[in-house]
Amino acid sequence: MDLFLNESFPSGFQWATSSESFKVEGGWAEGGKGETIWDRFGHEHKVLNNQTADLACDSFHKVDYDTYLLRGLQVDTYQFSLSWARIFPSGHKDTQSEEGVLYYHKLIDALIESGIQPVVTLYHWDLPQALQDHGGWTNQSTVEAFKDYADFCFSRFGDRVKTWNTLSSPWVVSHAGYGTGKHPPEIKDYVATHNMLKSHAEAWHVYNNKYRKTQGGQVGIALNSDWAEPVDPSRPEDIAAADRYLQFMLGWFAHPIFVNGDYPAILKTQIEQKRAECPHSAPAVLPVFTHDESQRIHGTADFFGLNHYTSRLVNHSDGGCTPGPQGVGDFQAHVDPSWPSTASDWIYSSPWGLRRLLNYISIEYLNITKVPVYITGNGMPSEYSVDTLEDTGRIKYMRSYINEALKAIIEDGVDVQRFTVQSLMDGFEGQQGYSERFGLHHVNFEDPDRPRTPNGFWAASCGLHKPKQATNTQVFSSFLLSGHQEQWFPHNR
Description:
By secondary structure, this protein is of the alpha/beta class. The protein has 17 helices and 15 strands. It is globular, with a radius of gyration of 21 Å. The N and C termini lie close together (9 Å). This is Lactase.
């Protein structure tokens, strides 16, 4: 059990909330926007209740409304993603939608006028369908297309946008989109990770070579990862299995960027062992970087972005010749039945895992390359119910996770500089449609005008009644920390 830490966040610490283009924008075919893989997925009736992102939250038409909500929260920063197909409908620079560009100009300008720093993600899962028709992330040509797209965005928005995420949660794209096939494009091919890493690196180099000197911004990547705790910490086999879990999730992307330009040795060794054990049905094949590619990828991040929501208990288990991380990695993942559940079947509240993961990242990836950690996504979904606007479940989840981040900063010395709460409002959550609600604002999806209502926790406590002399950091941290020192939160492991 861990006692609540009653301390303040450091001066200059940034509070943020977020959204993602296809989850909130709507306007799926307006202003010259091209089709995305999520448009196609929804239109092929592959989403819960045959829902689509066609209208979503209608944020494409509600810049002023959404900015008003952000001013009410008094956040320092708003992180949002661009729709590649809204800017380049075909995914290539020879097609350009000026109306799409103007939409993002309007949003960025409105944020700055409101004293809110825009943080922009270039890609959050919504690949232009025209690129997917030619293989998407499995096609090397997508690397060049992404480089051109990033270059264009830096040139048009970089005078005002000073923090960029190239990709957000690319492991989910690799695993669900190209591994299990549960997300679009429903393909199983691990070369997608290879090309996403190269795309990230090319975007970073474009900024570094062409824009950094004049714009003075920073470019990184937002990687998602659970924490993995051994089921039995006294068993070396479980300790090793938990490490493989982390290497197969976080290390797959973080090791090439932050360590040496190549995949983790443990991952490579494990895959080679499986190829030897399964000569007729190798469950995974890992592409190889050339020396020049490794050099180009290594060191291409000005910060470590982390999306984190939950943890797992992991033990060793022979996966045989079964594809997928658990089969190839020889581990099984579990949740403790005592961990509070959420509306998602994969997010269970285990806040102590965040602190352990932040310490792991600091040691594993940032011991030589000293860059700050930005928590680029943390939150939990609820189901719509009478309790939705009271938001009691999210209160406990967010308070405890934020406090674990504070412990990592104050007690462990981890350089965490930003915390992003997911998300500003409910949205289209992929396969789950509108059934899972991450928003600090409730959206009525039955009303075509898509009205937003602040959930009670945030409306009453995080800025709508902010004293004039209080800083944004004081508003968030004082509510989340004060008056609840008597509460204990599970450490468990």
